[in-house]
Structures are given as C-alpha cells and as structure tokens.
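Hello,

Our lab assistant flagged a job as stuck in the queue for most of the afternoon. It eventually completed. Since we weren't sure the result was trustworthy after the delay, we are filing this so someone can double-check. Below is the sequence as submitted and the structure that was eventually returned. Let us know if re-running is recommended.
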Amino acid sequence: MRDAFHEELDQISDKLVEMSRLTGSAVSRATTALLDADLTLAESVIEADEAIDRMRRELDDTAIDLLARQQPVATDLRMVVTAMRMSADLERMGDLARHIAKVARLRYPDSAIPPTLRATITEMGHAAEKIVAQAGSIIAGKDVSAAVALETQDDEMDALHRQVFEHLLGGHWDAGIQAAVDVTLVGRYYERFADHAVSVSRRVIYLVTGEWAQDGAEIPGIDPGDDD
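-- returned structure --
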C-alpha cells in the first residue's frame, strides 16, 4: 500500500515538472509572438494555456484524493500540500505567458514593443525561460541549494524590470501612451512570472527542510558560501 502511495507521490512530482516544461514553452513562444507580431503563435499560446490549467486541476484532484485515502504525515504530508501550492504557482505562470501573448494579439499587425526596448524585452524573455527551467529541475531533484540560488535569477529579472521603467521615465520616450502602457504591463508580467518561480523554489525548500525560506534568510543545512 505504501509503495503505491509513494508511486503516486512520484507521479505528482512528475506532473509538476511537466507543468514547468509547458510553462517554459508558453513564455518562450509568447515572447517570440510579442517581438515578431506573430498572431498565429500568440493564438497558440492562448489556446494551449488550457492544457496547463487542466493539469493543475488533475494534480489537485489527485492530491486531495491522497489526503483523504492515505492521511499522510511528516514529509509525505508536506509533499502533498506543497504540490498543490506549486501547481497554483505554475498555473499562474502559464496565465502570465498567456497575458503576454494577448498583448501581442491586441497590437497585431504591429509589434507592441518599440525598437528601443526590444533588447530588454528579449532579455526578460530569456530570463523567464531560464528561471522556469531551473524551477523544474529543482522540483525534480528536490535540490535545496539550487532553490536558494534561484533568487539570483530573480534579481536579474528585477534589474531588467527596472530598466524598462528607467527607459519610460528617462525623458526620451517618444513611442506614445499606448506603447508605454503595453511595455509597462509586459514588464510586470515577466517580473511576476519570475516571482512565482521563486515561490516554487521556496516551497521545495520547505518540503525538504520543513523551514520556510525568507528573503536573505539562511536555510538550515545550507552554507550560503557553498557554490557546489
């Protein structure tokens, strides 16, 4: 019975990793649609979000069923409960990718991103892809050290987000109000995408250690100076 239970826990973990993969694909394609004014690609991202939503519903149903049937304790209980919270984070990341694609669709056949900000938005897209890929690896390996290190990637996204506002408020903006609104929204979507990835990583830390990670906090058993 317990072997079957732990097999079901492994399946939940696998579903979370698959959700991270789908979310990474969504944000990658949404970025391309945004920069290239690709309507077909934008529509595909919007439509594909349902698969992520459906996976979350299935995962949560499985988790609730396990809670009812197995009444897990200790680490097993943390796994079931944190899996439901992580699925919510990943589902929200999929929503944010969909929002980016909707901006691309709204401004078609033009690109919503002015030439002066294309490089920054491209970097934000790459940063989003990288951070969600790392989150998936952290879930799969229950890697606390990597989860702690993920904060650095979020710092990079925050810096790019600030660049967007510096450009908007620097006194040289000439792309108009509509474009200003678009890039403000898009920048926020990417920044929140990374925040949810950090939330996932902190839930993995809690799963493994039983301790909640806070900004700048030391994690039990982890040497902040250890890069191995």
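-- support follow-up --
The delay was a queue issue, not a problem with the job. The result is valid. Residues 216-228 have pLDDT under 50 and may be disordered. The CA atoms of residues 39 and 105 lie 6 Å apart.
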